[in-house]
């Protein structure tokens, strides 16, 4: 299909049948923003206009777009084996991928349970936690502890342990019982414009001791947090905070789950944030950049002790949980090709190497109208604005729209703009994103 034919099709195509996720559908369909192609660091919209990707799609495409290594691996695999059942059957490529993931995971996390998304990875981890404690004869450990402003997907388990009000309120009467929340770590009064991890706030982890005293350690299965809260607006943990959570959970026999659906695969300058910050949890949930967003896929990385405990019972199915597409052969082929790219091009290291330049660039925006905080780590940054008189989110969305109209894709969450480009980005492209964002901030006011 030629570009002109594609444009004609997009102009006549009905938008009415697709109920879009996390989207103001009426607003979008009155003024659609349609992406048609992608290559390297750039999208093209349906008019053929280039748009610099400042968000790695949706935190997914860490290796950039249009990678032939991935598309060729997908094509080869779909011709060889398009699907195989994963219940009581197996296929070699799922086992190969699990081994590859174990090689780059934190020490001890050598078992892998495959899912199809971050949401499924979270719900799987919660189930695995309960199954582990039952296997150990501690069936009363069923309570979960999440955190305010946490995002853990959209399954009922994920929104129960999550802490974003808008995701919970419609479904509040159907959420899991026995869930409590730690306070969030965002403290703009003391930590605004921090570069990297904030210096103060580690004591907020001590609230976990209060929750243990309230509910009883014998009733708590797991604590789940994002090492860095991405969807809530790039909220970083204070120095020592994650270490303190690890100390408390170990003390009380509580599992610690890190949701690394966003931070995994190089975003913060290491394969996983747990490695960057020197804290090893009992499980890590992943998805998104696992296979560069090419095909839906997720995975839970699991400590050997959890798996081993589940293997001690009578012969038979050890965990009554799984998905039709767990370890899908084509998705697994895309993931292996993606891991090869990360290794061959040293993209995890590249994220750390560019961190200083990226940090200087995003913090150069300080002082522009209505900016009240800037946060960064690795190749991710968050710029927070005071709300406009028109209401919360209006300023952030206006800046997002202005950037897109001027050839750069950023992400708006209320009045926070998040930047998380593919790890293949160069310094000139960092400058382009920041300059376009600066112009948008001045224009929107």
UniProtKB/TrEMBL annotation:
One of its GO terms (molecular function) is pyridoxal phosphate binding. Keywords: Aminotransferase, Pyridoxal phosphate, Transferase. The keyword Transferase applies. Its cofactor is pyridoxal 5'-phosphate. Gene3D superfamilies: Aspartate Aminotransferase, domain 1 (3.90.1150.10), Type I PLP-dependent aspartate aminotransferase-like (Major domain) (3.40.640.10). It comes from the Bacteria. InterPro entries: Aminotrans_3, Aminotrans_3_PPA_site, PyrdxlP-dep_Trfase, PyrdxlP-dep_Trfase_major, PyrdxlP-dep_Trfase_small. Coiled coil: none annotated. Pfam families: Aminotran_3 (PF00202). CDD domains: OAT_like. SUPFAM superfamilies: PLP-dependent transferases. Belongs to the class-III pyridoxal-phosphate-dependent aminotransferase family. This is Aspartate aminotransferase family protein. It comes from Shewanella canadensis.
